[in-house]
Specification:
Mean pLDDT of chain B: 91
Strand content of chain A: over 45%
Radius of gyration of chain A: 13 Å
Number of strands of chain A: 11
Order of helices and strands of chain A: EEEEEEEEEEE
Low-confidence stretches of chain A: none
Oligomer: heterodimer
Largest sheet of chain A: 7 strands, mixed
Largest interface: A-B, 21 and 21 residues
Mean pLDDT of chain A: 94
Low-confidence stretches of chain B: none
Shape of chain B: globular
Strand content of chain B: over 45%
Structural class of chain B: mainly beta
Distance between the termini of chain B: 36 Å
Chain lengths: 113, 113
């Protein structure tokens, strides 16, 4: 898993609580992505970053925010978690633009009760 | 509906046999990628084929792209038990001023020793 770590790897939280997931890379790649993976929906892009403090929305960004204050860290925050946000979250990085050739982290399994 | 749709949804073969999986898409694309995901792990980028390419090889992998039929196939030759995984296609296409990345739902491949 090419120098990408995600923390925590597993989390159970209650509806309405804020949650922050962290993605850390040691590859110095410019582009970073957050996805969620759900049965029947496949991978869906939540937010992505094309540089420090430069972020943009993906197709399922509602209820999520991101921040990137350093090249190596990309944070995903659920401001007020809902049960529909129960999912496996993957971070990915790339040194190539155009949404290609991404390297994925190991994933975070989030359960919202 | 999904831009990229793989078929079959599941495939079971014996070690040493070839495995072929297909991906169909709906709009004109810039490129198409194939990724592998082992159970409980992040995705691994396998190969990218651009819209002006018809065939590409990487080790035991062969990818074809037929833009007239809006379809791609991934062939794994001489399969091994370690090839057991889910395989996803991902298409990148232009949407206004942006590029979009859409993932298929995957083909689950089981290679039996």
């Amino acid at each position: 898993d090419a120098g990408i770590t995600q923390s925590p790897r597993h989390k159970v939280t209650e509806t309405g609580t804020p949650v922050t997931l962290r993605c850390h890379q040691t590859e110095n790649h410019r582009y970073m992505y957050w996805y969620r993976q759900d049965p029947g929906h496949g991978l869906r892009l939540i937010h992505y970053s094309y540089g420090v403090k430069d972020t943009d929305k993906g197709e399922v960004s509602d209820g999520y925010s991101v921040s990137r204050s350093k090249t190596e860290d990309f944070l995903l925050t659920l401001e007020s978690a809902t049960s529909s946000q129960t999912s496996v979250y993957f971070c990915a990085i790339s040194d190539t633009g155009g949404l290609i050739e991404q390297y994925f982290g190991p994933g975070t399994r989030l359960t919202v009760t | 509906s999904q831009q990229g749709e793989e078929d079959p949804q599941a495939l079971s073969i014996q070690e040493g046999e070839n495995a072929t999986m297909n991906c169909s898409y709906k709009t004109s694309i810039n490129n198409l990628q194939w990724y592998r995901q082992n159970s409980g792990r992040g995705l691994v980028h396998l190969i990218l084929i651009r819209s002006n390419e018809r065939e590409k090889h990487s080790g035991r992998l062969r990818v074809t792209l037929d833009t007239s039929k809006k379809s791609s196939s991934l062939l794994i030759t001489a399969s091994r038990a370690a090839d057991t995984a889910s395989y996803f296609c991902a298409t990148v296409y232009n949407a206004g001023n942006n590029r979009k990345l859409i993932w298929g739902l995957g083909t689950s491949l089981a290679v039996n020793p």
